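Input sequence (142 aa), recorded before submission:
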Amino acid sequence: MDDCIFCKIINNEIPSTTIYEDDDIKAFFDISQVTPGHTLVVPKKHVQDIFAYDEDLAERVFKKVPMIARAIKASNPDIIGMNICQNNGEIAYQSVMHSHIHLVPRYSKDDDFSMHWGDNTGLVDNEQLQARADKIKQHLED
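Predicted structure, token format:
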């Protein structure tokens, strides 16, 4: 897409600090560097979000994530963990509408990164949970 910042980075129209690239993906530092080493893994094919992936693209993109994550962790002995996030849609904090995976190295509980997971335990019963599961199962593709 002509106005997509990630497509421009992929096409080397905008400079980036690239740490890995092959025919399918480009991995480069997020300009915000939420924590040192914060990396984005981006498919070279423009897809808006996870819902636009076909099985082949998903395999080619996601299979590289562990390799890149291990390399980031191995590069700095101070890294004690890593968040891997993939946001889909504005409501889910996707700010660039070209699918991308964040690899956020973690150094301590005070490293200026946080996530909040609400606890809704007990708000629905097992029958309601099963009904939700059954509805999702109706839409699974083999």
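Checked by second reader. The mean pLDDT is 95.
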